[in-house]
Amino acid sequence: MQFIDKAKIKISSGKGGNGVVAWRREKFVDKGGPAGGDGGNGGSVYLIADEGLSTLLDFTYRSIFKANNGENGFKKSMHGKSAKDLYLKVPVGTIVKDLKTGNVIADLTHHEQKVLVAKGGRGGRGNTHFCTPQNRAPQYCEPGEPGIERDLQLELKLLADVGLLGMPNAGKSTFISRVSAAKPKIADYPFTTIIPNLGVVRKSTGDGYVIADIPGLIEGASEGVGLGHDFLRHVERCRFLLHIVDGTEENPINNFNIINKELEKYSEKLAKLHQVVAINKIDSIEPERLEKLKKQFKDLGIEVFCISAVTGENLDMLKHELEKDVDSIEKPTVDVIVEEDLEATNNDDGWWEVHKLNKNTYLVDGGRILRISQVTDPRSTEQVIRFQNIMIGMGIMAELKHLGVQNGDTIIVGKLELEYWDDEVYK
């Protein structure tokens, strides 16, 4: 399985359905009154963490996700149907960034944790809501709110309990295949592992813990050389590290120091994580050399286990030590600053602007005012007056006056073409 730990997606929530203008048309009911139903709400978009996923691969095949729109209202006061919310499953450990602001807006660290990333538009109200003692036959309704479009980046950080360190070909993949049910690809050449392998190791108490064989480090990884930051990002959330050392290499101590220097360069917190060291491939090491290696590590104050991942020698002893450490060491806190996500609920599209097309014609553009124009019938004097009052309240009429609009000039707003007439309320 290919492992993908970064993905960019475009998401859109659904727009709300429009309210309608309608009337009761029942026999023997005189002047039945307004009966326009409300529009349904548009579908919202959520991200939800799923422990059954371990990769963002699905988002490379499909990167655009849109919730459905709400239905428009109906006559006889029947409301339009609201759209279902859209839930996108992501692996536990996914961090969500808003590409527009660069802010981290979510850190999904446990199963079924969910976050709203785009609220669906509210449905518009039908004319039944605008009936008053002074106006018992309102000729207008509301349009539905728009949906929200966003570009997001998903970034996965594995939530393993134990992270495996070691130079390429140190035997980490073989080790994880022996202590868990994981079946990583194994071969005798450097950089065999280019994707993280996760395995669940069963404890003596019956439950288990997660161990991650993450791609091998090389010198310069903290500056992004090789797999670099892609590797180190996954190490951050482990309880502790198991450092597999290839005892058959020419200078195992030097390889051990190289990796730890890269950890320290990347993060001081990483360098301070508890480490367990296992000298691997003891089935191919002479006893005198093995004793010398053990002494070198002990002189550094490090407890060492000598194992053979191939034959299984001393693996039970090491697993017992790992189990004790998993039970006693808490997971480190990761400094992920999650910003308040105001954009997820920002359905208000009240922006507008006025353009002078020629000497006698002005074009009004904008989100909300265009939506209101769509549900305004130019044949209805009452609806046109209400539309003009909305333009006054939004400051559009004042801007037209500032641009030099004159009596008789044409104002275009969406499908509407209105004739301007000077009035004191516009000043």
Structural features, described:
With 427 residues, the chain is an alpha/beta fold. Helices cover 22% and strands 23% of the residues. It is built from 10 helices and 18 strands. A 6-stranded mixed sheet has the order 10-11-9-12-13-14, with helices on both faces. Strand 15 (352-358) and strand 16 form a beta hairpin. The longest helix is centred in the middle third of the chain and has 15 residues, at 252-266. It is elongated, with a radius of gyration of 32 Å. Residues 185-193 and 218-228 have low confidence and may be disordered.
Major beta sheet summary: 6 strands, mixed
Rg calculated over all Cα atoms: 32 Å
Q: Report low-confidence residues grouped into runs of 5 or more.
A: 185-193, 218-228
Distance between the termini: 67 Å
Q: What's the quaternary structure here? A: single chain
Beta-strand proportion = 15-25%
Please provide the count of β strands.
Answer: 18
Q: Helix/strand-derived class?
A: alpha/beta
Number of helices: 10
The order of strands across the largest sheet is: 10-11-9-12-13-14
Taking all residues together, what is the mean pLDDT? Answer: 85
Helices and strands in order, then pairings?
Layout (H helix, E strand, L loop, with lengths): L5 E7 L32 E6 L7 H4 L2 E3 L19 E6 L2 E5 L5 E5 L5 E5 L30 E8 L5 E4 L6 H8 L17 E6 L5 E6 L14 H8 L4 E7 L5 H15 L1 H4 L3 E6 L6 H13 L4 E3 L8 H14 L23 E7 L2 E6 H8 L6 H14 L1 H7 L7 E4 L2 E4 L8
